[in-house]
Write a structure and sequence with these properties.
By secondary structure, this protein is α/β, with parallel strands linked by helices. The protein folds into two domains: 181 residues, no CATH class; 155 residues, NAD(P)-binding Rossmann-like Domain (Rossmann fold). It is 28% helix and 25% strand. The protein has nine helices and 16 strands. The strands form three sheets. The protein has a six-stranded parallel beta sheet with strand order 12-11-10-13-14-15, sandwiched between helices. A five-stranded antiparallel beta sheet has the order 3-2-1-5-4. A five-stranded mixed beta sheet has the order 7-6-9-8-16. The two termini are 32 Å apart.
Length: 364
């Protein structure tokens, strides 16, 4: 989502300067690639690139083709075969060994459903959406339809329920469709505005997470200390009242105040938050659970599975910066459904990009 926001911002600057722009999107991959379907990059006529479609080996050629697309005003589907080790044009030194198809579309500001407009609509709502791009693998030299639809709710039930993108081929119509699942950005709510939160916020900003800080102390939770965060100064019983908490939300309890953290945990366990991290030793959580049970509050196994205490991965963290790294890495792993093992010992697919492929033999 951060990359999408950067692309929108870059396009708005280009439009203000009356510059043409084109959007390059990875729509289909066979084999391995540095970026998967849905990776995108904005190219402006002054040669500026925002976003990325590879690790750097495709961008130069995509720039040249994008300038041609801007001039002609028609989308272009281009294929890069990184399995060809003799192809020095696209710099296959990365050894990706895949076939990558990239759709390059001119952005026409007057078009009310141009790709940037659709991306803007996605950013405006904290809601999962499906972006539909049409193209032809069989007739790549013919005019490509491009990114034309934004679907939500019942219009894209299958993709939204599975939370994975979908590639559909319609052979009799010589057309393919890429239904791209786009989740809202991860929302990180941090209870505590002490100095140890600074590196955590900085990493969250780099990752493009939506950041909210909760604290009962106005001199700590201030715009001077945290200018880019939403700030809530309240008692724990009222701190969550005006927050939208969904399955894309992570909460960290690190106020260094036992009673404040305990009150927040009590409020959180019945909410649909998939990650509750608590700073401190294991006995801190055990004590809270015992006190909950004494007052008639029973925490289920399912609820307990969403509480991470002690918080963070075991990377030998000591400093605030290292602890922030351990925490954010754990959050990323949990929401990606990964185990956070050494990649060199990992035997499965390194990038599980979850793109289902369907071929329709008849006319849709």
């Amino acid at each position: 989502m951060k990359e999408i926001k950067q692309i929108i911002h870059a396009f708005e600057l280009a439009r203000a300067n009356q510059q043409k722009a084109a959007l390059a999107t990875v729509v289909h991959v066979e084999g391995s690639s540095y970026r998967g379907p849905g990776a995108r990059m904005l190219i402006t006529e002054d040669g500026k690139l925002t976003g990325a479609i590879s690790g750097g080996c495709l961008e130069g050629d995509a720039l040249r083709k994008a300038l041609m697309v801007m001039m002609q005003g028609k989308p272009l589907l281009t294929t890069y075969d990184t399995s060809d080790e003799e192809d020095a044009v696209i710099g296959v030194g990365l050894g990706c060994n895949g076939i990558i198809r990239v759709l390059i579309e001119p952005i026409v500001p007057e078009d009310e459903i141009n790709p940037i407009v659709l991306l803007q609509q996605i950013v405006q709502k904290r809601e999962a959406a499906v972006l539909v791009t049409y193209f032809s693998l069989q007739n790549k030299w013919h005019e490509q339809q491009g990114t034309r639809l934004l679907l939500r709710g019942n219009e894209a039930v299958s993709v939204l329920e599975k939370k994975e993108s979908l590639f559909i081929e319609y052979p009799d119509q010589s057309i393919s469709a890429f239904f791209e699942y786009i989740a809202p950005p991860l929302a990180l709510i941090v209870a505590g505005a002490g100095n140890d939160v600074f590196p955590l916020v900085q990493i969250g900003e780099v990752l493009g997470w939506d950041l909210t800080l909760i604290d009962g102390r106005p001199n700590y939770a201030s715009t001077q200390r945290f200018p880019d965060c939403r700030l809530i100064i309240a008692a724990p019983e009222k701190a969550l009242q005006n927050l939208v908490i969904d399955e894309q939300t992570a909460v960290l309890l690190m106020t260094h105040n036992y009673n404040y953290d305990k009150a927040l945990l009590k409020a959180l366990i019945d909410l649909p938050v998939n990650y509750i991290g608590m700073l401190g030793p294991r006995k801190k959580l055990s004590r809270m659970l015992t006190e909950f049970e004494e007052t008639g509050i029973k925490v289920t196994e399912e609820q307990l599975s969403r509480i991470y205490s002690p918080v963070g991965l075991d990377i030998g963290a000591e400093t605030a910066e290292e602890i922030a790294l351990a925490i954010t890495a754990e959050i990323k792993a949990v929401f990606a459904g990964r185990t956070a093992v050494y990649l060199r010992s990992f035997t499965g697919k390194m990038h599980d990009r979850k793109t289902e492929i369907i071929t329709y033999e008849g006319t849709k």
